[in-house]
Structures are given as C-alpha cells and as structure tokens.
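Collaborator request log, item 7. Partner lab (contact: R.S.) asked for a structural prediction of DoxX family protein to inform their binding assays.
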Amino acid sequence: MLPLPELRDFPPRIATGAFILNSGLGKLKADEGTQQGLHGMACTAYPFLKKIEPGRFTRLLAWSEIAVGGSLLVPFVPTRLAGLALTGFSGGLVGLYLRAPGMRESGSLSPTQDGVALAKDSWMFGIGLGFLGAGTRRTGAAAHRRRHRGCAR
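Returned to partner:
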C-alpha cells in the first residue's frame, strides 16, 4: 500500500496544485491568439513541437496541467508520485525559461522583465524535487528503534 501524504506536505501541494489546475482550466478556454502565442513560445525552446498544431498543443498542455494539478490536490496520490509529475512538468518550464530568447539577462540566469513570469516557475521545480525526497529521512523514537534494532543492550 502506498503511503498517504504527511501533514507537512499539504500546504505546498495545495498551493501548487491549485495554481497549476487553475492555469490548465484557463487554457481550455484559450482563444486562437493565445493558442498561437503559447505554441510559438514553446516552439522556440522545443522545436519538435512545431509538428503539433497550436490548438492541439494548447489542449494537451491544458490537460497536462490539469493532471499535474489534480495529482497534487488529491490526498490519495503519494507525495513522491505527485512530486515526480511536478518535477517533470516544471522542468519543462525551466527549460523554456533557459532556452527562450529574451527571458534572461545576457550571460546570466537573472530574468529580464519579460522573463520574470517564466523564472518564477523555478519554485515549482524546487517543490517537486523536495517531494521526490519526501519520506527518506526518518526521525523520532520509531526511527531510532529501527536504526538500533539488533544492537546489544
């Protein structure tokens, strides 16, 4: 049986999940101009996406965001699994920030005014990485007993 999320995981899961879910739901209603803009920006960083038409790309992106946001919001999805989805998704956004022209100051990781909206997605990547490490450190009396099981008394 997969472990349920710990209480400390809920605040970042809820905040991040709600943000991503809302973004995905908004993209389902995107007009043609928005679809073209999203697709064009993604294609500058990831040229293989040119093979997908803008409307289809936007729908795929929207449903991906809904799936990632939903996985963070429902408590029966283990934190590590939700973290894996979040890390993969946000890693793509960080890649977009690093590859898209005009997003960073020349020779720097610092964002330009245009790049701030993408640079802020790095917090999701950090949360995802943190979730991937969730449950690896045991503390308290039970952990102490596990570490010292079999030791001479």
